[in-house]
Amino acid sequence: MSDITRWSASQLAHALASTELSSVEATQAHLDRIDATDHLVGSFLARAEDALATARGVDKKRAAGEKLSALAGVPIAIKDVLCTSDMVTTAGSRILEGWLPPYDATVVAKLRAADTVFLGKTNMDEFAMGSSTEHSGYHVTKNPWDLTRAPGGSGGGSAAAVAAFQAPLAIGSDTGGSIRQPAAFTGTVGVKPTYGGVSRYGVIALASSLDQVGPVTRTVRDTALLHDVIAGHDPQDSTSIPTPWAHMTAEADEGANLADLSGLRVGVVKQLQTEGIQAGVKQRFDEAVALMTAQGAEVVEIDAPHFEYAVAAYYLILPAEASSNLAKFDSVRFGLRVTPEGNPTVEDVMSATRDRGFGDEVKRRIILGTYALSAGYYDAYYGSAQKVRTLIQQDFTSAFARVDLLISPSAPTTAFPLGEKLDDPLAMWAGDLTTIPVNLAGIPGMSLPMGLAPEDGLPVGLQLMAPAYEDHRLYRWGSALERLFRERDGSLVYENLPEVV
Questions:
Q1: What mean pLDDT comes out for the span 91-114?
Q2: Where is the Amidase domain (predicted)?
């Protein structure tokens, strides 16, 4: 049998359903892969102790003839921002070190009900604040394509686990690009669903009006399979949308069989083609646009004038909401507690705990957000940022009146060297310029690998953007594009991962 860790989730699911493969065999293969490689990559923060027991249970259900989900028995990795009642949940922060939640996040509960097998919790930038997974309170995750490079962030652990064949599926969260940018850096497929399309209950909040949970895999169809499991209304989440959702897997399958791209109207956003885009990223993007045109798509330039202010607005809205959400980590109720010598007050204990428990990036954003919300500055900063957000939403509405999809590079560059931007927050934040508008508008976005940059041989991501509630468009057309990229290049990007791990 070939190395099953290289199989897609769809291939694994087919082999499991036909009993060609057992869940125990699939799970053991991925556990062995993690054992052999994670000392190099650092994808995981915690390992599931009962993975094989869960897999045995799925095999017994299948043998007994029980009706199982499409992904039953398939291993999966979970970003450490989702609460899990049987594994510690830290959000990558020392302030939650060792914390075991008393409940599961809704997404986790859905994955359990679908009989997926949890491999462990993946590393992340602390409280999802970062673009490189260098701001984790525990260790740095490395890019499987080049161990001297960042895997992106904040969900670098999930993307690296999938890229390194440690897991066929992973769950991430995306506040300003934390699924899509790591997917671009690691040659994986990542989707940020429509805001409210996937429950946030049990997800440790960063910025509540921006956060969204989504899938990370190696193929568009695998991403659709996982999206179908985790999507849907949740009464425990007040932002959850009660609208019925399209069957994403069916859309992906239909898209893969399209003869060409006839009838597709694509918009290229002028403001997302900035001077800071790496030459190889621009080359691959231009080639993708040319391929779409050759396959019958109508490609037009879109002017979205307020996108220019997206990064500035985002880095006022996010810190303000983070300042509020992280106030609960005060040493009193749960988590780390540091007690200074002498007769400290509650304020002294709180200050000492937050000083030791929070990293530099978290402190930076809390200070910025608290300032933006303070008396006399709210209207000038936070209020103005929200007005810009509305203008960006209007830009998207105008654009989607003309086109079916918008496209851009998923990130301005390929994976940058570890340490290169660690001490330059503004440079790190600027790397989110192509992904942030999607979160501000609450629309869905996908990062799809479109080749390797010629100057460094690292993956380049194509970002697809669709109107709110139209997530199925990403899967239909993303699957069609994935097929075209395979036909053009002879393989998909992930199949060319160098043997560095």
A1: 97
A2: 25-474
